[in-house]
Amino acid sequence: GGRFSLATSALQEFKVLTAELEAESQNICSLGR
């Protein structure tokens, strides 16, 4: 289904974005020390 695949790709993008955000925050924390 087109709608399902669209939701899946959106979820995948969200996961990637969340992971990048998490890595970025960890970088900032390590820089602060």
UniProtKB/TrEMBL annotation:
So which domain of life are we looking at? Eukaryota
- Name this polypeptide is given: Uncharacterized protein
What is the organism field in this record? Nymphaea colorata
